[in-house]
Amino acid sequence: xxxxxxxxxxDEKKRLVQEMFDDIAPTYEKANRIISxxxxxxxRRIALNELRASPGSTILDFACGxxxxxxxxxxxxxNSISCDLSFGMLNNGYDIPNPIxxxxxxxxxxxxxxxxxxxxxxxxxxxxxxxxxEEIFRVLKPGARFVALDxxxxxxxxxxxxxxxxxxxxxxxxxxxxxxxxxxYEYLPRSTSYLPEGEVISKQLETVGAENISISPLVxxxxxxxxxxxxxxxxxxxxx
Length: 240
Ligand SMILES: C[S@@+](CC[C@H](N)C(=O)[O-])C[C@H]1O[C@@H](n2cnc3c(N)ncnc32)[C@H](O)[C@@H]1O
Description:
- By secondary structure, the protein is an alpha/beta fold.
- The relative contact order is 0.16.
- The longest helix has 23 residues, at 157-179.
- 42% of the residues lie in helices and 21% in strands.
- It has one domain (10-230): Rossmann fold (3-Layer(aba) Sandwich).
- It has a 7-stranded mixed sheet, sandwiched between helices.
- The protein is globular, with a radius of gyration of 17 Å.
- The protein has helices at 10-24, 28-35, 40-51, 68-75, 87-92, 129-139, 157-179, 182-190, 198-207, and strands at residues 58-62, 79-84, 99-101, 114-120, 140-151, 210-218, 223-230.
- Strand 2, helix 5 and strand 3 form a beta-alpha-beta unit.
- The chain binds S-adenosylmethionine (SAM).
């Protein structure tokens, strides 16, 4: 059996992630729809329900990619600010209203400035997840919500077997066919191992001023939904 090289860490991971998403950007949404059997929209709707954002409010689509969540927010008459590391992803979405190319751990936004943050399938791609949470909870207004979706590996052995057959064996080949980038679609299922266990995520969120934290499995444990609220009396520091 071919031994896979270790996953990249630190600056090498950040460079690889940026290059990879720049490269697969033109076919990213098409591959997502096929690999998820079109269910990714449904999961995004569940996440947006949890965000409880009102029309007219301003939501940060954090690591927005091609703007799938941004588009759904616009359809709900919610204002959006959308940030991502990859120029390719930002330019291959629809016309994203307020795009910002930046590292999510260094947001050019004021403290307590947004009414909510949504993040789809991106947390595991961060080199510094705690730094990402710090920034998210710095820019959130006190009492505002953070909701994130990400991919995980189911705990149940039978479900895990079928999940891995699809996500680690068949889906990468489909992704390769669609995007012509073999390495990217081999990396994506392996990248689930970057995401810490739920308890660790909860602890990290608590340290940045989150409360009412819930981490729930979706789709038989192949996805997680993370929800939290910024404490009303939060004392986060940073750019004002
Ligand atoms: C799997 S895509 C998800 C895109 C989008 N959120 C969605 O729901 O489809 C992961 C995204 O995270 C972005 N990303 C990774 N590391 C980042 C960082 N440090 N700062 C900002 N964006 C980052 C990538 O460029 C990529 O667009």
